[in-house]
TrEMBL record:
This is Cupin domain-containing protein. The keyword DNA-binding applies. Residues 68-90, 333-352 are annotated as: Disordered. InterPro entries: AraC_lig (IPR032783), AraC_XylS_family_regulators (IPR050204), Homeodomain-like_sf (IPR009057), HTH_AraC (IPR018060), HTH_AraC-typ_CS (IPR018062), RmlC_Cupin_sf (IPR011051), Tscrpt_reg_AraC-type_HTH (IPR020449). Pfam families: Cupin_6 (PF12852), HTH_18 (PF12833). The keyword Transferase does not apply. Residues 193-291 form the HTH araC/xylS-type domain. Residues 339-352 have a biased composition (Polar residues). Keywords: DNA-binding, Transcription, Transcription regulation. SUPFAM superfamilies: Homeodomain-like (SSF46689), RmlC-like cupins (SSF51182).
Length: 352
């Protein structure tokens, strides 16, 4: 199983949005928690990543912050308490006239229903990475393209923005794994990892705790106990969430009948799938399929509530900045990755 490809296909269920944010003399801003995943990329100036509980983390141009599952955080010009930062605005604000001394890209996949993929929720809530742009020059190119793409209304942004965000997310996760191993986040237990891969490779199979424990090479009791301790939920509850995530993706990406999708993700009937889907996502599969993807620039004034749902985080101090010739100038003398506010369990999963 290609784990990162599975993550990208799942997160793409959300609505992609992006902005270049510029400021001059601002103390910073606080980004509220949201359902989804997002990325900040510092383009000019320096700042601090602020969270509720962890120590502030310094950021410089080129640094990337991954909000793996939408945790509240802030970007500040100096270390301070998160509560002291003003909240990010919820509507487009024209950039202040004159020069600016801080600029960053802000992009996200926002979910109107459900939550971020379980893989991302098993990562630390916030991850700060100083990429090695010499070893990965393609990432610099992607940042340049994304910055240009979101700097103004352009034809085709609804197609290019998700594609660029997908690629940047893949590169960020690859570099995270270069530093922290290539296994499943939150587990170094080979038995649990084997069971997870079995579920992800074949969610349609009639799995039971007995069959999963056999795949893990453990007794039923030992497997159930270790799985819950590592993943934060019982194995069958994890399987239900995985199947529904896969079903949501198939609803958005294919025209397959509901009964066929139900069988592909392990449900005997479309009625059983529909009931479980409604409990997890809050709406029926058919309604979910009809709900269009929204890009922030495509939402009219009459849909102010939808703007908040799509990207309250990104709609502040929108600038028309473009990279200088040759791209933004990022330092290449550092490479590090810092997990912030680690959260390797998720106790908020919906009941099956």
């Amino acid at each position: 199983m290609d784990l990162l490809s599975e993550v990208i296909r799942t997160v793409r269920v959300g609505s992609a949005a992006g902005r270049v944010i510029r400021s001059s003399g601002s103390p910073g801003m606080r980004f509220p928690a949201f359902s989804g995943s997002g990325i900040h990329i510092v383009l000019r100036g320096a700042c601090w990543l602020i969270t509720e509980d962890a120590e502030p983390v310094p950021l410089r141009p080129g640094d990337v912050v991954l909000t793996s599952s939408g945790a509240e955080h802030g970007l500040s010009r100096s270390p301070r308490a998160l509560r002291d930062l003003p909240p990010a605005g919820t509507g487009p604000i024209p950039p202040a006239p004159g020069p600016f001394d801080f600029e960053f890209l802000c992009s996200s996949y926002r979910l109107a229903h459900g939550a971020a993929p379980r893989y991302l929720r098993a990562l630390p809530d916030l991850i700060a990475i100083s990429p090695d742009y010499d070893a990965h020059p393609e990432l610099r190119v992607l940042v340049d393209l994304l910055g240009t793409d979101v700097s103004g209304a352009q034809m085709g942004t609804g197609a290019t923005l998700p594609a660029l965000l997908d690629l940047i997310l893949v590169h960020v996760l690859r570099q995270w794994h270069e530093r922290h191993g290539t296994g499943w986040p939150g587990t170094e237990d080979p038995g649990i990892a084997a069971a997870l891969r079995a579920m992800h490779d074949h969610p349609e199979r009639p799995w039971t705790v007995d069959r999963l424990s056999a795949a893990a090479g453990l007794s039923r009791t030992a497997f159930a106990r270790r799985f819950a301790a590592v993943m934060g939920r019982p194995p069958m509850k994890y399987l239900i969430g995985l199947r529904l995530d896969r079903g949501a993706r198939l609803l958005r990406e294919t025209d397959a009948p509901l009964a066929a999708i139900a069988r592909q993700v392990g449900y005997a009937t479309e009625f059983a799938f529909s009931g479980a889907f409604r409990r997890e996502y809050g709406i029926s599969p058919s309604h979910f399929r009809r709900t269009p993807h929204l890009v922030a620039d495509d939402v009219g004034e009459a849909d102010a509530d939808a703007v908040d749902a799509v990207d309250a985080v990104d709609a502040v101090a929108v600038g028309g900045a473009v990279p200088a010739e040759g791209g933004w100038s990022f330092p290449t003398d550092r490479y590090a990755s810092t997990p912030i506010a680690t959260n390797t369990t998720d106790s908020t999963a919906a009941a099956p």
